[in-house]
Amino acid sequence: MVLVLALGDLHIPHRAPDLPAKFKSMLVPGKIQHIICTGNLCIKQEVHDYLKSLCPDMHVTRGEYDEDARYPETKTLTIGQFKLGLCHGHQVIPWGDLDSLAMLQRQLDVDILVTGHTHQFKAYKHEGGVVINPGSATGAYSSITYDVNPSFVLMDIDGLRVVVYVYELIDGEVKVDKIDFKKTATAHSAH
Amino acid sequence: MISDGIEDEEKWLAEGIAGLQHNAFYMHRALDSNNHRDSLKYSAQMLSELRTSRLSPHKYYELYMRAFDELRKLEMFFNEETKRGCSIIDLYELVQHAGNILPRLYLLCTVGSVYIKSKEAPAKDILKDLVEMCKGIQHPVRGLFLRSYLSQVSRDKLPDIGSEYEGDADTVMDAVEFVLQNFTEMNKLWVRMQHQGPVREKEKREKERSELRDLVGKNLHVLSQIEGVDLDMYKDTVLPRVLEQVVNCKDELAQYYLMDCIIQVFPDEYHLQTLETLLGACPQLQSTVDIKTVLSQLMDRLSNYAASSAEVLPEFLQVEAFTKLSNAIGKVIEAQVDMPAVGAITLYVSLLTFTLRVHPDRLDYVDQVLGACVKKLSGKARLEDGKATKQIVALLSAPLEKYNDIVTALELSNYPRVMDYLDNATNKVMAVVIIQSIMKNNTYISTSDKVEALFELIKGLIKDLDGSPVDELDEEDFKEEQNSVARLIHMLYNDDPEEMLKIICTVRKHILTGGPKRLPFTVPPLIFSALKLVRQLQGQDGDVVGEDVPATPKKIFQLLHQTIEALSSVPAPELALRLYLQCAEAANDCDLEPVAYEFFTQAFILYEEEIADSKAQVTAIHLIIGTLQRMNIFGVENRDTLTHKATGYSAKLLKKPDQCRAVYACSHLFWVDDQDGMKDGERVILCLKRALRIANAAQQMANVTRGSNGPVTLFVEILNKYLYFFEKGNPQIYSAAIQDLVELIKTEMQGDMATPDPSANAFFASSLRYIQFQKQKGGIMGEKYESIKV
């Protein structure tokens, strides 16, 4: 059982002062094995270092407002049986378009693609795999999505199965939902 | 006479102890053989050692303690004797024959103690006798120890209420009298020490006096322990008499110590009830007495008392504690003109702590204290003294901590005035404290007046004060500082759009004074605050009645435009471009076509003129394309102009692969996937073909320059785009074209066998898998894909 925290688009301090207190109290160090962050933290010191303190294995991709411009545009990593891809998403036009994101997924050749930018939680399954958008962890303003609720995703990777838990702060209460995905053990033969 | 040093004193002490022990030995022998006369004779000789003038108080004490131990034994012996019938009156008379007065008095006290115990005479009479007789010793050190001895032996024999020595009525008064007299005489002796000896030895004398102070203070302690001393007796007798002595002795050391002693030793409720008397003594003390420390101690004790239980609070109101303390402090500060700033401020800090504990709801009191502080500080320049500034920070932090609510602190009119006296660095420290308090308590500031007041307080962070440039502040610290201001901006909010707009304008006014270093931090949060307001107003458009409603999206966009413009002074073109695009999208949602167009214009201008870095250009053009793709407000002409620009710039990016990607991204500008969105298949395919040409050119260039192949992956990307539009039903995309592309890629890859690109291969493989998958879907999709062979 490997826990992966996926979050992003915090936009601190441009659009939000801080993570919601209820989220902060849930995210304690030592419980999570990996953190993947879609980007737009924005400030290094407070946010990056805070996330690093929750879990040292942290991966970030560059959002268009990030203070640290050296984050990579995309990142891939393998956790257990799954290949994960990470990208902020402002590079994929049209923004939030599933088919275009599927193209990125094929390009990175990953089972699970995690992107952000739209500030709206989404979890799609399609033939190539899963596309997840953890939304905005602070509920930051977005030109694309109205009424953004703060949200983040926790993935529990166990063998060929991943359970995606989404935590959303709605009207002051944290609501949890979950989605199951199973990977078919396909034989990927290289050309 | 100059003392010869410590060794001599040690010698004399040793001699004294030897003599004492020698005589004690014989004294005991006499006691063993029941020889009263001899025992007294030897004890007198023993006590003669205490007649020395050569020892410092510290050493004298050692000698005294040994004598004390011996006298205890003597007392016990005589106690036994009186039980067995020996006449105490005779004994009392016998000891008066001792030759020298000091031994005589020690013995009298000892026997006096036995006498009291025997109860053959009232305690009060004997005590009165003893305390009078001790006047015979006027030498300070000897007298103090003698009277201390008297105090010690009489301690448990005072005619207190409930004590076995209580005589007829009112003997408590006698006990009190006794102690008061002893105290008075001891204080006089103690003060006299100050004036003995040469002036140059003053420091040494004061040190010696310090060592003896507890002997004097003990009497006050004894008074506090007397059961019969209730509030009334304290108020009517004890305190006035003690204070009389304190004031009249006119000695700085004594006054300071004794005032402090009174405060520590007697209960807080007594102080509360005698506040006027106690405070009344303060101005009468010597001007050199550190009265502020005394007052601070008093206020701290009272503060703690108030905090201990809610039931005592009404008492404070009843005695008007605040007014009395406040007046007393005022008088002291007035009287001590040379008091340094830190002293006065410390006093005010204590008073403020007191006020916050006792009268938290009386903001006027709190403000009064701050006002008094301002008055004291006025006329002086900014404080340089580190301790003083520390105290001011404590003064200003106290209301914040107490009220947990900056809004309350903002109502204190004197609060900003106090802050004005801080030097720049401390001002900023205080500003950060204020912001932290707001963030910690999640307080929202909801009117523009309060926002104005708040920004006045934190102006040290908002702009350079005194026209001087930003101090040599560490870059990290500066960033942290400005980021905290940025976060603060999100705490300024009101549901009502009019008020919210006022707040935004107030904030804008202040941050625009911040200068180029601060704007990149402070402008974005303000912009997004304003965009949120626009969104809120979007829904309300139809309800607007009357012409003069200030809060309309249009007006806010004007504000936004001007604010983003300010970033040009930094300069921060990339940030400004992003913000313009955000505004364009918001304008689109408000159906304000010209406004949206204007924002796009500004974005393009920045792109053209200010963004030179190729990597920055790539991101910027993608943001422009992505935003433009979502615009539905533009008429044909406007749209054409903007898309033309976008595609033009895409093709002019420096690196070929970047060009290729930007151009095929532009293809989406001509195809919007909702009902009435445009679907210009012709122009889509033109873009894709153009992208293909660029990819080809990139291939050739790579061949020529590096002898290797170019980015095959570009072709795979373009293939995927073909598939995208093919599936969406673009009639200009034929399956044949797709097939050709597939073949092309296969060829290229075979040519790459020498240096294969694994990620491109994997991409192609997954793309083919996708096509396969779609074919197998059946239905319309399957039909579409039928003719494509992979």
From TrEMBL, chain A:
UniProt keyword annotation of Transcription regulation present: no
Residues annotated as domain Calcineurin-like phosphoesterase: 4-158
One GO location term (cellular component): retromer complex
Keywords: Protein transport, Transport
Domain of life per record: Eukaryota
GO biological process: protein transport; retrograde transport, endosome to Golgi
Gene3D superfamilies: 3.60.21.10
The keyword Metal-binding belongs to this UniProt entry's keyword annotation: no
Pfam families, alphabetized: Metallophos_2
Database matches in InterPro entries: Calcineurin-like_PHP_lpxH, Metallo-depent_PP-like, Phosphodiesterase_MJ0936/Vps29, Vps29
Alphabetized PANTHER family for the sequence: VACUOLAR SORTING PROTEIN VPS29
Family of the protein in this entry: Belongs to the VPS29 family.
Designated name of the protein: Vacuolar protein sorting-associated protein 29
Organism whose genome encodes this protein: Nelumbo nucifera (Sacred lotus)
Lineage: Eukaryota, Viridiplantae, Streptophyta, Embryophyta, Tracheophyta
TrEMBL record, chain B:
Gene: LOC104603625
Cellular component per GO, a single term: cytosol
The species this protein was found in: Nelumbo nucifera (Sacred lotus)
Location(s) in or outside the cell: Cytoplasm; Endosome membrane; Golgi apparatus, trans-Golgi network membrane; Prevacuolar compartment membrane
Pfam family, one: Vps35
Keywords tagged on the record: Cytoplasm, Endosome, Golgi apparatus, Membrane, Protein transport, Transport
Chief location category: cytoplasm
Name this polypeptide is given: Vacuolar protein sorting-associated protein 35
Membrane topology, as annotated: Peripheral membrane protein
Organism taxonomic ancestry: Eukaryota, Viridiplantae, Streptophyta, Embryophyta, Tracheophyta
